[in-house]
Specification:
There is one protein chain. The chain is of the alpha/beta class. The protein is 29% helix and 27% strand. It is built from eight helices and 14 strands. The strands form three sheets. The chain has a seven-stranded mixed sheet with strand order 10-9-8-11-12-13-14, with helices on both faces. Helix 1 crosses helix 8 and helix 2 runs parallel beside helix 3. The longest helix has 16 residues. The protein starts with 7 loop residues before the first strand and ends in an 11-residue tail after the last helix. The mean pLDDT is 93. It comes from Gramella jeungdoensis. This is ribose-phosphate diphosphokinase. InterPro entries: PRib_PP_synth_CS, Pribosyltran_N, PRTase-like, PRTase_dom, Rib-P_diPkinase.
Length: 312
């Protein structure tokens, strides 16, 4: 297929707002999709235009509930059966990624299962951002373009002009990301060591490093219940930090997250629009990832390198 052939961009329901921004930045319009819903909740997406022989981009994050993933799968299958030549699943947030290994007996590796299902449904390429674990790319047999939100966040952080800046990781698992940010910003690093009583419940947290008089920025790939972030912010302020703000790519924000953030010592939480916010908050600032995805999609369609987007 010639790279000059027009690409077609479609959206899943949950990512309509982001898809419109991406299409605008790309210089195109969203394709026409109609979703019919039965009374029992079953739904059926339908492409209302030909995609035969086309490169199709389907934009949709797969955050819970499971209908978001199901809609992506149905649209991939529809595009495959309509004879689209290239079908790219553009998933700003790749859901179920926390289940990337067997951390105890008799549990699934959901991230691997989802990867297999996406390929079976018809995806010939995946574009995603800030996977929970880098190795998830290896769960796919098709090409995966794993983008880093640091290309968005680093310029924003530099624009804040914070003195005595220190980058922090809210847990040991995020230390690699924290060190990458600190290298780019030439700042110090501190790490939070936490112990969990169970999922989403922290029993104890310690701080490795000095935050006295520092403007601290916590970095993480996602914020779910916000328990870790708000606990880390409290600990850091108690240890003498000047301010604490957080950068998290994916605003899952479930349960009591909004209340925790509002009542916390976090000065600000900066997120992308990979997942739409359920409600507004004076402490939450959204930085759009639309330009990043539009540029990568344009390069993919034109068979051009996207290596410049893999900075971390």
């Amino acid at each position: 297929m010639s790279a000059t052939t027009e690409a077609k961009i479609f959206n899943c329901t949950q990512s309509r707002a982001l898809a419109e921004k991406i299409a605008e930045k790309y210089g195109s319009k969203l394709g026409n999709v109609i979703t019919s819903t039965y009374s029992d909740g079953e739904f059926q997406p339908s492409f209302e235009e030909s995609v035969r022989g086309s490169r199709v981009f389907i934009i949709g994050s797969t955050h819970p509930g499971s209908d978001h993933l199901m809609e992506m799968l149905l649209m991939l299958d529809a595009a495959k059966r309509a004879s689209a030549r290239h079908i790219t699943a553009v998933m700003p947030y790749f859901g179920w990624a926390r289940q990337d290994r067997k951390d105890k007996p008799r549990v699934p590796i959901a991230a691997k299962m989802i990867a297999s299902i996406l390929e079976t449904a018809g995806a010939t390429r995946i574009i995603t951002m800030d996977l929970h674990a880098d190795q998830i790319q290896g769960f796919f047999e098709k090409p995966v373009d794993h983008l880093y939100a640091s290309t968005i966040f680093l310029p924003h952080l530099k624009s804040l002009g914070l003195d005595n800046l220190t980058i922090a990781s809210p847990d040991m698992g995020g230390s690699k990301r924290a060190y990458a940010y600190s290298k780019a910003l030439e700042s110090d690093v501190v790490i939070c060591y936490k112990q969990r009583a169970k999922a989403n419940v922290i029993s104890h947290m310690e701080l490795i490093g000095d935050v006295t008089g520092k403007n601290v920025v916590l970095v993480d790939d996602m914020v779910d219940t916000a328990g870790t972030l708000t606990k880390a912010a409290d600990v850091m302020m108690e240890r003498g930090a000047k301010s604490v703000r957080a950068i998290c790519t994916h605003p899952v924000l479930s349960g009591e997250a909004y209340d925790r953030i509002e009542n916390s010592k976090l000065q600000e939480l900066i997120v992308t629009d990979s997942i739409p916010l359920r409600q507004e908050s004076s402490k939450i600032k959204v930085v759009s990832c639309a330009e990043l995805f539009a540029d990568v999609m344009r390069r993919v369609h034109g068979n051009r390198s996207i290596s410049s987007k893999f900075i971390m």
